[in-house]
Task: structure prediction
Amino acid sequence: MKKSILLLAVIALFSFEIQAQSVQRSDAAGGFGIRGGVNFFNFGGEDASNNDYTNRAGFHAGVYTNLFLGSRIALEPGAYFSVKGTQNDGIGDPRAILNYIDVPLLLRLYVTDGLNIFGGPQASFLMSSKFEGDFFGSTFTYDTDAITKTDLGFVVGLGYNLPKGVNIQGSYDFGTSPVFKDSNAAIYNRGFKVSLGYSF
Result:
């Protein structure tokens, strides 16, 4: 099922790119592009507030394409590898490292030629998950299958297109699926992303 969804996402990216070639676009806004940057993720939700979770730095990298629906609005599907998780300031500095493929479908509104706001749904598919801790000078790691395989959520953000196809943006991921499967705990993936992109 996971492979089928990822295959459909890739096919959608290429079909959108073909269509986007015939749509009028600015130098820095449209077409196929690559994007990457830093993540600052944590566990959020009512039950997470009772623990000493703190932001953990990770990264994301992937591809996107713009399909302009008008002069000021564009649909932007994408696919990114994204490292999320959290850490705790307790004994051993325990941390969760969760690797996902994020597939957002964003609607981007251009307030000016460069400035834009965006938002939309996102499906995140778990690739791997592990817990780590530092004890007696060594790092101990073990894989876990306790994490929910699919995380559905939303993305909102603010972006700006620079000359020569370069763009920058900041966004917030709001996960709505509980992180731990077979659990009623209200704990979710929440975090900020700062990204640098290039449209070809």
